[in-house]
Amino acid sequence: MVHLAAIPNDDVVNDSKLVAAMKKVHLQLANDDDCFTTSVYGSKFAASDLPRHEMPEREMPKEVAYRMIKDELSLDGNPMLNLASFVTTYMEEEAEKLMAESFSKNFIDYEEYPQSADIQNRCVSMIGRLFHAPTPSSEAAEADDACTTTPGAIGTSCVGSSEAIMLAVLAMKKRWKNQRIKEGKSTDKPNIVMSAAVQVCWEKAARYFEVEEKLVYCTEDRYVIDPKQTVDLVDENTIGICTILGTTYTGEYEDTKAVNDLLIERGLTTPIHVDAASGGFVAPFVVPDLEWDFRLERVVSINVSGHKYGLVYPGVGWVVWRSAEYLPQELVFNINYLGADQASFTLNFSKGASQVIGQYYQLIRLGKHGYRAIMSNLTRTANYLSDSLEALGFIIMSKKSGEGLPLVAFRLAPDDDRNYDEFALAHQLRVRGWVVPAYTMAPNTKNLKMLRVVVREDFTRNRCDALIADIKASQALLQQMDRDSIKKQEAFLHRHSTNSAKASHNHPKFRKEKHSLQGKTGKTHAVC
Amino acid sequence: MSLSRHVDPEDLIHHLQGSEIQTSDGRTSPHLTPYSTDYASRKAIPKFSIPQDGAPSDTVYAMIRDELELDGRPNLNLASFVDTYLEENAQKLMVENLAKNLADNDEYPAMLSMSERCVSILANLWGVQKGEKAIGTATTGSSEAIHLGGLAMKRRWQEKRRAEGKDTQKPNIIMGSNAQVALLKFARYFDVEARVLPVSAKSKFRLDPDLVRENLDENTIGIFVILGSTYTGHYEPVWEISDILDEFQEKTGIDIPIHVDAASGGFVAPFTHAGVGGHKWNFELPRVKSINTSGHKYGLVTPGVGWVIWRDESFLPKDLIFELHYLGGKELSFTLNFSRPGAQIIVQYFNLIHLGFSGYREIMENCLANARLLSKSLEATGWYTCLSDIHRRVSGGGTSGASDVKDAVKKTVSAVSGGGSGESSDTSAAYIAGLPVVSFRFTDDFKSQYPHIKQETVSLLLRARQWIIPNYSLPPSEDSTEILRVVVRESMSLDLLDRLVTDIVQVTETLMENDEVDLTILHRQQKGPSRKQDKDHKKEKALGEFRRMAEGIHRSVC
């Protein structure tokens, strides 16, 4: 051996520098409990849960609260790809600015914000005239404003068509009741005649105001009311008839004129309310000759959603009555403050003024010409989509070329070899980002299933092509799958992919209610 | 005296303009600025029907914005409880989420879950008891919430009566005559008899428990108790009413529920040191079945959000709930509105977690401190006396002690001269609980000395200085008394308050210096309504003569 090696003693062995170095390194994780942050994500809040059930004891910096909420909201869907809803998702920048500037204005505070109130009156007047509301006398109307002298039309803004419909039902009920009391007859059993394809708020209105619903059912090939059947249902306890200008399922316009003519023929004075939630801003521009509004004698009230084809963000609807006579006085509350009297007939009181201002912006910004241009484009796009889908082998259930709303309702052609249904196709499209809802149709249509695409202002031809391509691709994919895997996939999607299925807040007590049309027949309420 | 013809300005403009109107080519021309289009001078902005052709967006924006400048300034509006201030970040959230529809639960699940959390947070804040499953919903405001609360009470009563085989024709509901119009609307629209009980100075202008006792019967579906009367800011005694109902149930076996309308108080009482004077008002009282509040009042959100919560799901009748199916998901719905904006709910959640309990407490205490200072300053002048009691000390032995008031005045004088800093150490716990509202009127001395001065004139003159302070009479039985009311909101800082007090003093002094003749002119002017009001009156005539219904009841703003 050449090398001699020393044997280290214990001290040397234990005093290993490496270990010592390890020991000396302290993980210096910040544990500052204050609110000072480098960026939002460096704060303690980023690492802890957002409060869900109880108010936090301490404050949170506003940037952090803003960012946390914004981030969470990014889980919401993309409104542009949502083809399920009629509700407007695009407004011009200037309109947005106007609305943002008016957030803090309380709409009902007439005295403080008289101009906002005046803007509402102008909108009511414009919409009333659009619907051919009778004005005092045409001469006076030209010189002066409408609805100032006695038998003119009146109207109001609401939060949406639901409120508008509740108000209209209430007015019809009260008027009927007053009439019956005058005749000394019983007022126990009011009823209302409507299509089984109505939006859920009609059912709500009937339930909450204790009016019996008399339904006109749809059939397999007729998705709207039959005028004769409708009028046959009318009796002395009928407070009114509801017809829909553009059903939510197929967008078809119900034949209000036929109902009106039948009523006149039979000498009945039953009033008609037209639910023009979606169609009120489409029909007057696309098919101005269609008689559905105040041109018909029996039509006493009309509602329309400003936030659908009125092209305003959610939160505004309108209701117009033919004349003050159809609005019983006892429903109108007179509110006085600061010396200004205001007549109020609403279910809501304080609310933002932004949407009404937005509506006025759109009305004068676009004019009839602008609305017509937009609605014409939508009709063209809907036609194009219908034709393309028909070519792909779907059965088109909606009307084309302005006979209905610019939406396309379609279903798969009956085929025994086909393993998938409309719901599966809807799920498949959702995977690709499109929200195209599948529905079960109104009762008595043998649970007909259908898909629906609502063509909104921001749905251009280009995006329409993208949708068609994706429908084709999805179908091809579904065709390749066998029955079992589709079943499995369906169950999986149902459990994990739809958002509201995951919702945990619904009380078990109220689930599976059996009292509504949905509970009884399995009809799905279309989104509006 | 010369005869003069009435001049209608609108008519005048119409005629004069018509004489030199130019026909345009029907298309809008290119323009340099928003003010160089046809609308600048040649054409009137459309008011009554949709114009045939549209206009460029910047023009329309400028026109509408300019016109809206005629609206009042939200922050100087002291008439309203409704919030007018949003933090910048909250405003940003609001704009970003303008297009979101709260009803579209499938598309916007994150927004929905925030609404759910707000309900949960509020239920906890209002003392929901262990073992109960509270349930609630967001509404557009307290009006909708009250309708829903009342409807649930009515349906529960109907179900009970039907089960007993009894008549369900004549339901009634009890409330004080200080009630907000929404409560009366509920009764009218849902066919329930409204038993509106008169209020008096004895009951501090709020629901009188003694009268409640006399008006109960088997057809009473419930009682609306208001937490924070809009007239004077007093909290109604929920606990006393609850005791009376307990007594009634013991005697007759009839169980009558309470709905607390905490539109303004729901976000004040839980946070302040004063609470509601040490009493219970929320779900801690078993008889309180539902509570509503307005997020857009002291919840500090801009208008468009309210909340209603039931203490347990069993108080919400099943047949009022609709189950909606969307794309495989399910949603339960009990609202009067459907599609509606969701941005306000997001901001409500923002406020709740951003401010936290201590943040809200600080704001509410500040409001109360400012309201106290205003009350004391007003009383210190000797011209005014306050009907609201929040500035009176609890230990001082109540509301009517005149010596107490004098003490307060002395103290305030020193406090005011000391820059108001004497206030800061006090919390509201030492004072009578109530909303940060100051209701005041001329003292009797002042009235006898200057009988010709009308209180209304003070309101009018303050208006000329941009302040909106309404003058109105108390509810029917007390309607000979007129009050001026100031709502102290978050955005009413000490500095602004200082200006307000100075202005009120100046205005009153001006009035005192002027003689009767000058003041009559003012009154006459006051009667000539503005164009806008004129229009309203006309419309009203068209609707018929329902002015009687006002009877002074619905005069307060909320």
TrEMBL record, chain A:
Region described as Disordered: spans on this chain: 497-528
The superkingdom listed in its UniProt entry is Eukaryota
The entry's protein name is Glutamate decarboxylase
**Which organism does this sequence originate in?**
Echria macrotheca
UniProtKB keywords: Decarboxylase, Lyase, Pyridoxal phosphate, Transferase
Q: Name one GO biological process term.
A: L-glutamate catabolic process
Q: Which cofactor does it need?
A: pyridoxal 5'-phosphate
Under InterPro entries, the record lists: Glutamate_decarboxylase, PyrdxlP-dep_de-COase, PyrdxlP-dep_Trfase, PyrdxlP-dep_Trfase_major
Automatic annotation (TrEMBL), chain B:
List all Polar residues biased stretches: 19-33
Q: What SUPFAM superfamilies does this protein's entry cite?
A: PLP-dependent transferases
Q: Identify the keywords attached in UniProt to this record, alphabetized.
A: Decarboxylase, Lyase, Pyridoxal phosphate, Transferase
Pfam family membership, one:
Pyridoxal_deC
Which residues does the record list as N6-(pyridoxal phosphate)lysine (modified residue)?
A: 297
As its record notes, the protein acts as a catalyst of:
L-glutamate + H(+) = 4-aminobutanoate + CO2
Task: Note the superkingdom of the native organism.
Answer: Eukaryota
Its needed co-factors are:
pyridoxal 5'-phosphate
Q: Which family does it belong to?
A: Belongs to the group II decarboxylase family.
Provide the protein name. Glutamate decarboxylase
This protein's species is Echria macrotheca
